[in-house]
Amino acid sequence: MLIYPDNLAGLTLDRTKTPQFSTNIKKSVSGYEVRTPLMAYPLWNFSLKYEFLRTESNGNELKTLAGFYLQCKGSYETFYFKDPYDHTVTSQIFGTGNGTSKSFQLIRYYGGFIDIIQAPLNYTINIDGEPTTDFTIENGVIIFTTAPASGAVLSWSGEFYFPCRFINDKMDFNQFMYNLWEAKKVEFVSVKL
Fold first, then answer.
1. This model's pTM is above 0.70
2. Alpha carbon of 82 to those of 15, 129, 154, 163: distances in Å?
3. For the chain, which has fewer Cβ within 10 Å, the N-terminal or C-terminal residue?
4. How confident is the model over 156-181, as a mean pLDDT?
């Protein structure tokens, strides 16, 4: 899996992160509505802006970013993005054992909302506060070899990526000075694995 380059100079603080849901809304003539949520968890839209991307020998951010975009073939390929301000959890409870269930989805609490984690990184899984390695993981689902005991508290600490794809099949790079370029809109959206 490709990992979005997070060390590029020129990235501004002017960035956007937008949760997106999908809701089916049917309105009656009387004004009443019936709303059906089509998604339990949001997709996250990201928009980054680079004020400058150098093309000189001491830094070639243009080739790094453009090359990454080309590797993704525009919106075709999925990649991992680590949001610099939202990529860690500590002692996050993600389930309680019942003695029979072996599979549990990693989650995080986000302002009272429970969001799923699909791509954990550098993580520790605990059963009743004790670290365990007796599991496999697939797209953020922990599959224990032996079902955790009834009442056992399952928690995790670590980092995570957002699996994403670029929104568009084109990206604009503008040269504004010798050896300096800019990318005013680098847009991508999270995807479900």
1. yes
2. 14, 26, 24, 9
3. N
4. 96
